[in-house]
Each structure stands twice: as structure tokens, then as C-alpha cells.
Automatic annotation (TrEMBL):
Protein name as catalogued: Copia protein
Domain (Reverse transcriptase Ty1/copia-type) ranges: 20-150
Matches recorded under Pfam families: RVT_2
InterPro entries noted in UniProt: DNA/RNA_pol_sf, RVT_2
Organism this protein belongs to: Cajanus cajan (Pigeon pea)
SUPFAM superfamilies: DNA/RNA polymerases (SSF56672)
Length: 390
């Protein structure tokens, strides 16, 4: 920054003490600017009768039924959604009174997300973002792969030669992580590859290149949200015990459906080593319990009240532990916060139902799968490519 024009410089030259300029308001480029902008924007919306969500502070809602409207803010990018076009127009007119805005029309792009919508569905993908990754990596002409990772592949911390420039691997994984927003099919692979960003080896980069070959095959793949879905929440959750060969920690995986649409998913390494498969499974139950509490509370902002969520699980022992608050020799060492799942079951907020192993959809988030199994599960998750010729 420089001294504004017109300020008498002789004062600075003759002053014995160092002088600084004090800003009376935030300006673009300062680290406080985005915070100040959001405070101003949120204050304006709340003064106009909008309710700021307690579960996502960037979400503002107002009205019910046909007059319901939601505003989502990310820095200076704003999305307005409502079943009533007149309501949207009214809110835009109100915002124009307070701010200088550029109206981009119907939502088609948002933070690298591409959206295509009709009365019966919404399709979300990151096609252009995927193309940019492939182009920057020189993989546009690569041979496509049907799966993101070989089913037999076991990645180790030091299984090959160190990369001469680890920054290349780290930048690639960082970009691929953002791609998982709309690509649950690559979540597990990215989850595994991201474990080695601190010390990547050539074997890890080879696995990353195979993922890029899979992206070449599925460039336009994304999530399909159907309008005719019901308003129930059902979940598939599982754990892969001791799947990390270096640390022997387990992997938690889950996928959450709102009606028939996939809305949340995760593949994550557990924080501690589990002494048994039942313990690993119970830890995964505790993980999804907190996610479901947040999701059910968030839906209340949309005037949708979900009395309970149904969890489909393939481990009967873990279901017994969650449903029967009794002393168990093998689980007495578990942290108290893990028993949050018991509290939710007792309240009726969660219903646990056993599902057969071959019906478990969450395997795609806990392990690398053979081609036929991978594609079969993928078809049930709502991951599609509407740009392919029918």
C-alpha cells in the first residue's frame, strides 16, 4: 500500500516517530476484506427477514412452501433458489438496492461445478475441471482405464523410489481432492493416495496416473438428483479392519441417500488402531451418527423434518453393541464419545438394520474393487454420465 495522493509528505519527512495510516473501512485485497464483506451481506439479509442457518452460516432461508427461498454464499458468489420465480426476482431487486451485483441468470456453473437441470432431475459434474487436470498433466491422449485403482494394489509408504519433485504429486492430489465433490467413484482412491503427500514415491505417482486414465474414461461423470425422491434418509456404512499395511488402522466408509439421491459420502482412515473388526465397525457407526445429526438439523432449515435415519449395516455384533447398553469385555476401552450412537438409537433418531454383505453399497468407499463389482455398485449410487449417447 502507498500513501494516498494529496497527503502532505513533508509531515512524514519531519516527523520523529514512525507514522502509519489507519483505515476507516476494509478494502479489497486485505485479509479481513472477505470477513467484512460477509458480515455486511449477512446483516443485510437478516434485516430483511432471512434466517441464517446455525448449521451452515453461509445459508440463508425465508418463507415456506411456494414462497420458500434459499440463498447460499461463497465469498462473492451467490446462489438463489426457490420454486417461485417471482420470489427470486423480488429478492434480486432487494439485493441490487444494497449491492452492485452481476446477474448471471440460471445456475449452470458454480465453483467449477457444472449443473444441468430439468423438472425431473438435476445433474452435477465437473467436466471442464477434469479436462483441465488432464491437460495440465499431459494425459489428454492417455489410454483410458475402466477402474480408478487395481483391486490387488497395496500401497506402502516406502515401496519404490522417492520422487525428485514431490510438489508435482502434492499439487495433483490437491486438485483431485476437490474433484471428489461430485465424484464418489474416486473417493477411496484419492483417500489412499492422499496418505503419501508428505513423502511420495514413484509407485504412488503410478497409481495417480492410473486414476487420471480412469478420469479420461469418465470425464463427464457426475451425480444425478431425481425430483421424485421421497424425504427419507437411509445410509450404508462399513469399515475395513486393519486395511492400512503400515499403521494397521482401519478405513471408515459411508454413503447417505436423501430419498433416492446420494447427498453425502466419505472414505476416511480411523484415528486409532482397532483391536477387533467389531470395534472398527462400531467406530464407523459413531462417525456416521454425527454426520446424520448435522444433516437432519440442516434439513430443518428447508422445512423438512426427518424423524429418524435408517442405517444399513452388515455387522450384527456392532448393531448389538449400539442397541444394547450393557458391559462388553471387548469394547470397555472405547472412548465415551463413541457411545453417542447409543444415545441416538435410544432416542429413536437412528434405526439399525442388518443388510447382507452382497447388498452393501459402501464397499466402494473402503476398498479397491474388481471391475464388475465396482461398476455394479456405481450404478446403484446414482453416478451417471448424461452426456453419453443413449
Amino acid at each position: 500500500m502507498k500513501i494516498p495522493q494529496g497527503y502532505p509528505h513533508h509531515i512524514l519527512l519531519t516527523s520523529c516517530a514512525p507514522l502509519v495510516c489507519k483505515l476507516h473501512k476494509s478494502i479489497y485485497g486485505l485479509k479481513q476484506a472477505s470477513r467484512s464483506w460477509f458480515n455486511k451481506f449477512s446483516t443485510t439479509l437478516t434485516s430483511q427477514g432471512f434466517n441464517q442457518s446455525k448449521y451452515d452460516h453461509t445459508l440463508f432461508t425465508q418463507g415456506t412452501n411456494s414462497t420458500f427461498i434459499a440463498i447460499l454464499v461463497y465469498v462473492d458468489d451467490i446462489v438463489i433458489a426457490s420454486p417461485n420465480l417471482a420470489t427470486i426476482t423480488s429478492v434480486k431487486d432487494m439485493l441490487h438496492q444494497y449491492f452492485k451485483l452481476k446477474d448471471l441468470g440460471d445456475l449452470k456453473f458454480f465453483l467449477s461445478l457444472e449443473l444441468s437441470k430439468s423438472k425431473s432431475r438435476i445433474f452435477m459434474c465437473q467436466r471442464h475441471y477434469t479436462f483441465s487436470i488432464l491437460e495440465d498433466c499431459g494425459m489428454l491422449a492417455c489410454k483410458p482405464s475402466i477402474v480408478p485403482m487395481e483391486a490387488s494394489l497395496k500401497l506402502h509408504a516406502e515401496s519404490s523410489v522417492k520422487l525428485s519433485d514431490p510438489g508435482v504429486y502434492r499439487r495433483l492430489i490437491g486438485r483431485l481432492l476437490y474433484l471428489t465433490i461430485s465424484r464418489p467413484d474416486i473417493s477411496y482412491t484419492i483417500h489412499k493416495l492422499s496418505q503419501f503427500v508428505s513423502d511420495p514415491h514413484s509407485g504412488h505417482m503410478d497409481a495417480a496416473h492410473m486414476l487420471l486414465r480412469y478420469l479420461k474414461h469418465t470425464t463427464s461423470q457426475g451425480i444425478l438428483f431425481k425430483a421424485n425422491s421421497d424425504t427419507k434418509i437411509h445410509v450404508y456404512v462399513d469399515a475395513d479392519w486393519g486395511s492400512y499395511v503400515d499403521s494397521r488402522r482401519s478405513t471408515t466408509g459411508y454413503c447417505v441417500f436423501f430419498g433416492n439421491s446420494l447427498v453425502s459420502w466419505k472414505a476416511k482412515r480411523q484415528n486409532t488402531v482397532s483391536k477387533s473388526s467389531v470395534e472398527a465397525e462400531y467406530r464407523s457407526l459413531a462417525s456416521i451418527s454425527t454426520e446424520l445429526t448435522w444433516l437432519r438439523n440442516l434439513l430443518i432449515d428447508f422445512n423438512i423434518h426427518i424423524p429418524y435415519a435408517t442405517i444399513y449395516y452388515d455387522n450384527q455384533a456392532a448393531i448389538y453393541i449400539a442397541s444394547n447398553p450393557t458391559y462388553h469385555e471387548r469394547t470397555k476401552h472405547l472412548e465415551i464419545d463413541l457411545h453417542y450412537v447409543r444415545e441416538q438409537v435410544d432416542k429413536g433418531a437412528l434405526k439399525l438394520i442388518r443388510v447382507r454383505k452382497h447388498h452393501q453399497l459402501v464397499d466402494i468407499f473402503t476398498k479397491s474393487l474388481p471391475r464388475t463389482v465396482f461398476l455394479n455398485i456405481l450404478s446403484k449410487l446414482g453416478v451417471e454420465n448424461i452426456f453419453l449417447p443413449s
